[in-house]
Amino acid sequence: KTVFVSGASGFIAKHLIKSLLSSRNYKVIGSIRTKEKAEKLHLLFKNDPNLIFSVVSDISNPNAFDESFQKHGVQIDYVLHTASPLFFTVKESCEKEILVPAVNGVKSILHAIQLYGPNVKKIVLTSSSAALAQAKDDATPGLTINEASWNAITWEEAKKNPYYAYYGSKTYGEKYFWEFINKHKSRFAGTAICPSYVWGPQTFEQDIKSTLNSSCQVINEVLHTKPGSIVDNDYCGSCIHIDDVVKAHIKCLEDDNLAYERLFLENGRFTLQSIANQINEDFPNLKGRIAKYIQGIDEEKFKTMATLDNRKTRELLGFQFKSFKECIDDTVSQILKVEGGL
Ligand code: NDP
């Protein structure tokens, strides 16, 4: 079977590609912004003959995926759409740089599938917990966030800053996805995967740079705090290990029971203090060299937050998620190994 993976250069996509190829059940066509990036990735994937790339330079373009699907569409059985802006530095316009590419990315890949993908059976959208709730919902004790929750952010609000824009981009992208899937139910099965912060190692050690992909950068920054400093305990979220995100995506291709579901992937809350504490505990040689260990204040913070309930997702997936400790340890050990600190 052949899987089209959009955004092949991304943190999650590279893991997906590695796993698809190593299972030996799949061929992969990855969309990527430039030829140069494709060449670099070919090297990292050791020129695997089951992997090819197709250049899609900007998903803001309403017909971004047409050419790629005109060329390869007939071969494609499954689509994993991961490409979407996940950064918070905007030059001029949140709408132009975050909202439009995310939503047009979803629209253009679905239209290309419809026109040029006669054999596509399943489409999986990498959405986000950002499509379930926004920061103010998450900070509402008594509120439960689950697979049925929707972020109520308006397009106007989403234009205000890059964080709101990210929330809006995932919400409006996923809304369009369901509109399309519901309209074309007889032709395509669809699943939306909504992870919270995705952590864990990079696919390749070469991907360890001073700044990592947005989610792993959160851990990287705590790891590089000044000795004895204090981190922001108000920075709060929930997390999931990259291995579980990969397993969930691939299970969507293989298990018909996951069709038309929204999967909420998270396995526990954290604040930056939880990260600092876990690093202090698990990497004793860093004690005194990074931010302080402070017990319990993260748990106090969690009490002021909404309840996260993903029992439905856990039941549907049927496997145990990796722990917060594994998320931190796996991310940190790889960084330290590459930086020569372990
Ligand atoms: P990355 O930033 O590592 O990957 C994003 C990918 O999208 C890159 O390949 C990037 O290409 C591509 N992309 C972004 N903007 C454009 C554009 N305008 N045109 C073409 N391609 C574009 O992020 P992740 O791998 O972490 O995220 C992948 C998906 O998972 C996203 O949809 C994200 O919203 C979702 N997600 C991620 C979470 C996380 O914690 N990591 C949590 C929840 C959801 P390039 O690098 O060349 O710019």
From TrEMBL:
<dbReference type="InterPro" id="IPR001509">
    <property type="entry name" value="Epimerase_deHydtase"/>
</dbReference>
<protein>
    <submittedName>
        <fullName>Related to NADPH-dependent methylglyoxal reductase GRE2</fullName>
    </submittedName>
</protein>
<comment type="similarity">
    <text>Belongs to the NAD(P)-dependent epimerase/dehydratase family. Dihydroflavonol-4-reductase subfamily.</text>
</comment>
<feature type="domain" description="NAD-dependent epimerase/dehydratase">
    <location>
        <begin position="3"/>
        <end position="255"/>
    </location>
</feature>
<dbReference type="GO" id="GO:0016616">
    <property type="term" value="F:oxidoreductase activity, acting on the CH-OH group of donors, NAD or NADP as acceptor"/>
</dbReference>
<dbReference type="Pfam" id="PF01370">
    <property type="entry name" value="Epimerase"/>
</dbReference>
<dbReference type="InterPro" id="IPR050425">
    <property type="entry name" value="NAD(P)_dehydrat-like"/>
</dbReference>
<dbReference type="InterPro" id="IPR036291">
    <property type="entry name" value="NAD(P)-bd_dom_sf"/>
</dbReference>
<keyword id="KW-0560">Oxidoreductase</keyword>
